[in-house]
Amino acid sequence: MSAKYIFVTGGVVSSIGKGITVASIGRILKNRGFDISVIKLDPYLNVDPGTMSPYQHGEVFVTEDGGETDLDLGHYERFIDIELNKKSNVTAGQVYLSLITKERKGDFLGGTIQTIPHVTNEIKHHITDLAESLDVDVMVVEVGGTVGDIEGLPFLEAIRQLRNDVGRENVYFIHLTLLPNLNVANELKTKPTQHSVSELRSIGIQPDALICRSQGEVPDFVIDKLSLFCDVNKEEVIPLIDVDNVYRVPMILEGYGLGNSITKTLGLPPGSISNNNSWSSAISEMDALEEVVSIALVGKYVEYPDAYMSVKEAITHAGLRVGRRTQIKWVHSEDLERDGAEQHLSDVSGIVVPGGFGKRGVEGMILAAEYARTNNIPYLGLCLGMQVMIIEWCRNVLNLFQADSEEFQPDTPNPVIHVMPDQMNVTNKGGTMRLGMYPCSLDLKSKSHGFYESNLVEERHRHRFELNNAYREAMEESGICFAGLSPDGTLVEIAESSQHDFMVGVQFHPEFRSRPTLPHPLFVGFLDSVKQMLREGAQFSFNEVET
Ligand code: GLN
Fold first, then answer.
1. Which of 383, 394, 440, 481 is catalytic?
2. Which of 27, 160, 163, 516 supports an S-S bond with 204, CB 3.0-4.6 Å?
3. Total structural domains in the chain?
4. Is 481 one of the catalytic residues?
5. Mean pLDDT, residues 438-445 taken together
6. Is residue 547 part of a domain?
7. First CA to last CA across the chain, in angstroms?
């Protein structure tokens, strides 16, 4: 059977939660027993988000095959429990790069290269080729940006054409919009949605379903009005009221009949929704958790938590496994440099230092590692978080006072973290780091081996620097256990302190592999340790935290 396609567009405002909605649609279909995959189309001109600032774009999600992709792919993987790849995220930059490379090679000799049909063909082939190669029942496609954006037009035109190419009966269009509430009149306004749908229709796309975000209840007459003006069946005008727990969204949409409408329109068997149970019971358990543990996440983009999306989610998932609701205290590493660690970390029971690039804020992260080490507070270092743990150890335990990473101080006399040999001559920035899944063999005597319960694991990477082997012996003699190494023994993947209950740094990003129903063993180990060592009175007020 050839694949069916669901296209999801967004209207009215950006950041409307399309990624979560698409991930939820994926979960609904997976629950009903379909094989599915997802593609995110991003209309910007960067080839990938790897070179964008986290302030612009949030986290860069890394796929197993080393794709540096949009953070929405993280939502898809977590919600649907699938593995995506580089091809699951297409940007306008990639489309044009591929097209212009072909043009230079002479593939179109004699021809004029135009938006229609060349750009649109490139987009369409990408979508259908991936659906065919994965042999999925349904390919869900998220169109990034907001309807009305100039740069999104070739993508919308491509999906309009694709409906004819694959047959109308094989395509389902969903448009996600916002119903703003005017406080003065206390009235939900439908006009922005009407305009957005009318814009879509002017380019030939009539949505089959409308999902309308709203802060509060949506009265029936509003649904009726939207149905009338937008020409969408009432049953398919679905209100999506803000929720505390995004993992609830699949159940909400399913409750409004979206799964039935999709399967019916696409001529798919309805499937059984009974295996909904494992997902919904996990999410209900998550909502019921009461006892709280407080975890500090010490980074330099903390005012924009999207930059640490997968880390935040991985902590939540592991909390569910150990039966604790987790509160994250977002701590700016530069604040530690100014005020000292005690002031910001005395009220937490565990410390996570996530990944990052560049010198700004690093000394604060080193202070966080020192505070964790000297107070025996569970510490989990992720990529840069491992590197700062090592720098701190070398400075304060080995007395190599100038120990540093070549990234921050290229001429340091003690480059305990140094550039990987195969990175030395790399000058291009985009897509050139050590990226994607690599194996790691575990030391049988290590704590990490106990968490993983495995001798060999695979984890996703995104870094240029690594632990300098010249310092390994001295570190080992002073109490560092190199719990995980590349199978040839040359690269340190996991370092842990033998003297602490939980002081573990990893050169990779375990957060990318965590799922709500399958939390990552290292995060579970970390939270288990936090739970056992719970610091007396370590809790802070809710207004400075996010759960
Ligand atoms: N900047 C460090 C490196 O490139 C760490 C990268 C990261 O945390 N992802 O090695």
1. 383
2. 160
3. 2
4. no
5. 97
6. no
7. 43
Q: Give the domain-ending residue among 241, 275, 309.
A: 275
Band (537; pLDDT cuts 50, 70, 90): low
Q: What is the CATH number of the domain that holds 48?
A: 3.40.50.300
Report how far ligand 1's centroid is from the alpha carbon of 319 (Å).
26
Q: 465 CA to middle of ligand 1, Å?
A: 6
On whether both 361 and 405 belong to a single domain, the answer is yes
Given strand 325-332, what is the order of strands in its sheet? 456-463, 434-442, 480-485, 492-497, 503-506, 379-382, 350-353, 292-299, 325-332, 545-546
Ligand 1 pocket by Cβ (under 6 Å) = 355-357, 383-384, 407, 462-465
Strand pairing category for 434-442 and 480-485: antiparallel
| CB hemisphere CA count around 159 (13 angstroms) | 30
| Distance, C-alpha 171 to centroid of its chain | 27
Mean pLDDT of 390-418: 97
Q: Is 110 exposed, middle or buried (0-12, 13-18, 19+ CB in 10 A)?
A: exposed
Catalytic residue among 118, 418, 500, 509: 509
Instruction: Let me know if residue 155 belongs to a domain.
Output: yes
In the prediction, which pLDDT does 271 show? 83
Tell how far CA 276 is from the center of its chain. 23
Pocket test for ligand 1, best of 51, 357, 360, 467 (most atoms within 8 A of CB): 357
- Number of Cβ within 10 Å of residue 149's Cβ equals 16
Region of 431 please: left (phi>0), alpha (psi -120 to 50) or beta: left
Residue 438 domain-assigned (yes or no): no
CA quadruple 467, 58, 138, 235: dihedral sign: positive
Q: How far is CA 387 from CA 258, 382, 505, in A?
A: 46, 8, 8
Q: How far is CA 178 from the centre of its chain?
A: 23
Instruction: Confirm whether 536 is a catalytic residue.
Output: no
Is 440 assigned a catalytic role?
no
Atom 8, ligand 1: residue with shortest CA distance? 355
For residue 22 the two structure tokens come to 């698409």
How many angstroms separate the CA atoms of 238 and 252, rounded?
A: 10
SS3 416: strand
Query: How far is residue 381's CA from residue 296's CA, in Å, rounded to a whole number?
Result: 12
Q: Is 85 exposed, middle or buried (0-12, 13-18, 19+ CB in 10 A)?
A: middle
What pLDDT, on a 0 to 100 scale, did the predictor assign at position 406? 96
Count other Cβ atoms within 10 Å, centred on residue 21: 26
Residues 539 and 294 sit within 8 Å (Cβ to Cβ): yes
Between the alpha carbon of residue 262 and those of residues 138, 140, 230, the distances in Å are: 10, 11, 18
Mean pLDDT estimate for the chain: 93
Q: Are 77 and 37 in contact (CB under 8 A)?
A: no
- CA 221, CA 393: separation in Å to the nearest integer? 64
Whether 294 and 327 have beta carbons less than 8 Å apart is answered as yes
Q: Same structural domain for residues 333 and 260?
A: no
Range of the domain at 45: 4-275
CA 279 – CA 287 distance, rounded (Å):
13
Q: What is the average per-residue pLDDT within 26-40?
A: 95
| 510 within domain boundaries | yes
